[in-house]
Specification:
mainly alpha, 67 residues, single chain
Length: 67
Amino acid sequence: MAGHADLAAYIDMLKDLRARIADLIAKGASLADVIAAKPTAAYDAKQGDSTNFVDRAYKSLSVKPAG
């Protein structure tokens, strides 16, 4: 079972990855560019293969607001 510290570390990781991926998108990076940049490299040893995570994050963060 994860404790408070584990949950806090996980949230910090998600915030960090969101910022890294959003920064790459803002610079015009394609999905392939973002995957190649390995924004999750610091976490991969603990979290495992992150390709699906990066794909979903990219698609979510690159959606243009309606209107």
